[in-house]
Design a protein that fits this description.
It holds the Pfam family DUF2179. The protein has helices spanning 10-41, 47-68, 73-97, 113-121, 150-160, 190-197; strands at residues 101-108, 127-133, 136-146, 165-171. It has 199 residues and is an alpha+beta fold. It contains six helices and four strands, in the order αααβαββαβα. The N and C termini lie far apart (78 Å). It is elongated.
Length: 199
């Protein structure tokens, strides 16, 4: 009859439902915890405390289920598996969000004119310094870019100066700066192909 909720076998509840609940609860709280740490490192003071509250609330519920079912080893496995999976998912979510800025430092031992021209034409601010390395003179390029544009900059480096050394560091805070204007259409890296046609 409608409206009657089927009774769940206590053994199924203990051996299946509770471990699954703990597993998914741990995924949620660890994923949120990973995001909270990222927000803290970005200086986002309003979001981090809210995420911290939700994270701890879910964690308390998950731990409570374990203490209520101490004799079931599956709960311990589910707790550990959820922790590991939550870390992985948290990193994936952070990569997708790609929030904040990054400093790209490029050290090249060959002519970097094409790379500089490409980056500036694509809307990136580039500071260029003369440098002297073990193998002779070179250039050091600095550019602060949005993290979602890092792949475009890396593609340009590999295309124009494939042997250049570069490093990428997170930037917690920056003022002013030059960044590409977001417009509908192809990714900024396509501009590099346009530039190369004119060579």
């Amino acid at each position: 009859m409608l409206g009657i909720v089927p009774e769940i076998d206590p053994e199924v509840f203990s051996l299946v439902i509770v471990p699954l609940f703990i597993f998914f609860a741990r995924i949620c709280d660890v994923t949120i915890g990973t995001m909270r740490i990222i927000f803290v490192s970005r200086g986002m003071k309003m979001v981090a405390p809210v995420l911290g509250f939700v994270e701890v609330f879910i964690w308390i519920i998950a731990v409570g289920q374990i203490f209520q079912n101490l004799t079931n080893p599956l709960n311990y496995f589910a707790y550990a598996a959820g922790f590991g999976t939550g870390n992985y998912i948290g990193m994936l979510v952070e990569e997708r969000l790609a929030m904040g800025l990054a400093l790209v430092r490029i050290i090249t031992q060959r002519d970097a004119t094409n790379l500089i021209d490409y980056l500036r034409a694509a809307g990136y601010g580039v500071t260029v310094l003369d440098a002297q390395g073990k193998q002779g003179p070179g250039k050091v390029l600095f550019s602060v870019v949005k993290r979602k544009n890092i792949r475009d900059v890396e593609d340009a480096i590999h295309e124009f100066n494939p042997k250049a050394f570069y490093s990428i560091e997170d930037v917690r805070r920056a003022a002013e700066g030059t960044f590409p204007v977001t417009v509908p259409g192809p990714a900024p890296f396509h501009l590099g192909r346009v530039i190369r046609k004119g060579k």
